[in-house]
Write a structure and sequence with these properties.
With 187 residues, this protein is mostly helical. It has one domain: Ferritin, CATH 1.20.1260.10. Helices cover 74% and strands 0% of the residues. The protein has 6 helices and no strands. α1 runs antiparallel to α4. The N and C termini lie far apart (50 Å).
């Protein structure tokens, strides 16, 4: 263990916070891989590529978290049991969502992690006294903001398309064209 001038009690608290974050990141990476492998629909190529890029970035972050935990003298979680016990995110077992539901789900998870990261940095004196971990968490915030922004762009385009389609239906109704409404949703 490297002497990084942190008290043992601070190391334990920081390690606990980092293992919880590691659990969240691992679940998010697994979910992103699942969606990458199973996405279908008209936006397949774009989402398959985006999800692939994002899980690679998450895996880099996961590795950095595990290594930081070890540098602090702790043991990084490495089992699904530990990850599932400590994550704040939700799995979606058996669920085969639509492509846009996948993007919404991942976007929501990034928002949860951003709130958690900001809360940890603001409310934890042990973290504030550890500049190395603070830098890592700040970097994680930037990565999650970037990934959430990319997902939001996908979802924003979808919202614009829905508004345009609704406007087209309204125009058709106004001029007396029958508008066919689907009986079930693909979502």
């Amino acid at each position: 263990m490297v002497n990084i001038e942190l008290e043992q009690s601070n190391r334990r608290e920081v390690t606990r916070v980092l293992n919880n974050l590691l659990s969240d990141e691992y679940l998010l990476s697994t979910k992103t891989k699942n969606y990458h492998w199973n996405v279908t629909g008209p936006h397949f190529h774009d989402l398959h590529t985006l999800f692939g890029y994002q899980y690679v970035e998450l895996d880099v972050l996961i590795d950095r978290l595990g290594e930081r935990i070890r540098a602090l003298g702790g043991n990084a979680f490495g089992t699904m049991t530990d990850f599932l016990r400590c994550t704040r995110l939700q799995e979606r077992p058996g669920m085969r969502p639509s492509e846009l539901t996948m993007a919404e789900d991942l976007y929501d998870d990034h928002k949860i992690l951003l709130l958690s990261l900001r809360g940890s940095l603001a409310g934890n004196a042990s973290l504030r006294s550890d500049i190395g971990t603070t830098e890592l968490l700040t970097s994680a915030i930037q990565e999650h903001e970037k990934m959430a922004s990319m997902l939001q762009s996908v979802l924003g385009k979808h919202d614009q398309l829905k508004k345009w389609l609704k406007a087209q239906e309204d125009i058709q109704r106004e001029i007396g064209i029958e508008v066919l409404v689907p009986t079930s949703s693909a979502t």
